[in-house]
Amino acid sequence: MKITYFGHSCFRFDEDGYKLVIDPFKDVDGYNDVKTSADMVLVSHDHFDHNAVSGVKRKVSGKENPFNITMMQTFHDENMGQDRGKNLVHIISVKDKTYVHLGDLGHVLNDKQASYIKNCYCLMIPIGGTYTVDIEKAWQIIEKVNPQIVIPMHYKNGKYGFSVLENLSDFLVKSKRKIAVTTNSEFFELPDGDNMIVVPAVFEG
Q1: Beta-bridge partner residues of 88
Q2: CA–CA gap between residue 92 and residue 178 (Å, rounded)
Q3: 3-state SS string for 119-174
Q4: Do 104 and 132 contact (CB within 8 A), yes or no?
Q5: Backbone dihedral region of 123: left (phi > 0), alpha (psi from -120 to 50 degrees) or beta?
Q6: d(CA 59, CA 72)
Q7: Looking at the predicted structure, is the pLDDT value of residue 48 above 80?
Q8: pTM over 0.90
Q9: Which helix (H) or strand (E) holds 75?
Q10: pLDDT tens across 145-194, in order?
Q11: Which pairs from 131-140 meet CB under 8 Å and 24+ separation?
Q12: Disulfide: which of 21, 26, 72, 78 matches 38 by Cβ 3.0-4.6 Å?
């Protein structure tokens, strides 16, 4: 499967020509607003930096949807949603592999929640704090879930990301996993291997 990272928390999945976009954004420091096309758009919550669906042209490919998608309700904060509302975790399965996008998760998953995504193939997790879990809590979730591959998102990295967010480098320095950095910004395919962190290049097209 081909994956494109537009930055922040936005990804496009392309499986045999069927395209799915999750959490398109606008007005995020350093990044171009998301402008793309897809067969389907998913949104974790109704904030401008995750729900800019107007930037995604609905272009029906005619391909059969290969994705099986389930959702788990969580919260955008540690106060049962009273501060920032609810957040949807998207669990996307295709060809016997499960990709989990945590959206703007604001709390450590409890044991029951973690059990639904335990040992998933790929976990896309926010790390920046302030609006989501921070680096420390992100690592707690990773230890609980034990994914094969981790893709960090929603962070500050150079010119990219809100200034209040924690830095990607501070997350990576705490990693005991092998780190792989993609170089093709147009799309990437996850490498073979286990116990990895994958840092995708940002597509600015």
Answers
A1: 73
A2: 24
A3: CCCEEEEECCCCCCCCHHHHHHHHHHHCCCEEEEECCEECCECCCCCCEHHHHHCC
A4: yes
A5: beta
A6: 27
A7: yes
A8: yes
A9: strand 68-75
A10: 999 999 999 999 999 999 999 999 999 999 999 999 999 999 999 988 89
A11: 131/76, 131/84, 131/104, 131/106, 131/165, 132/76, 132/104, 132/105, 132/106, 133/105, 133/106, 133/107, 133/108, 134/166, 135/166, 135/170, 135/171, 135/174, 137/107, 137/108, 138/171, 139/174, 140/108
A12: 21
Per the structure block, which two tokens stand in for 104? 């703007």
- 115 CB-side CA count, 13 A: 3
Strands 149-153 and 178-181, bridge-based pairing: unpaired
Strands 36-38 and 86-94: unpaired
CA proximity to 101, closest of 74, 66, 80, 81: 74
Which single residue is written with the structure tokens 């009273």? Answer: 82
Task: With H, G, I as helix, E, B as strand and everything else as coil, classify residue 21.
Answer: strand
What pLDDT does residue 77 have? 87
For residue 205, pLDDT beyond 80: no
pLDDT (tens digit per residue) in 62-73: 899 999 999 999
Distance of CA 166 to the CA centre of its chain: 16
CA distance 48 to 82: 19
Tracing tokens 């990693």 back to the chain, one arrives at 175
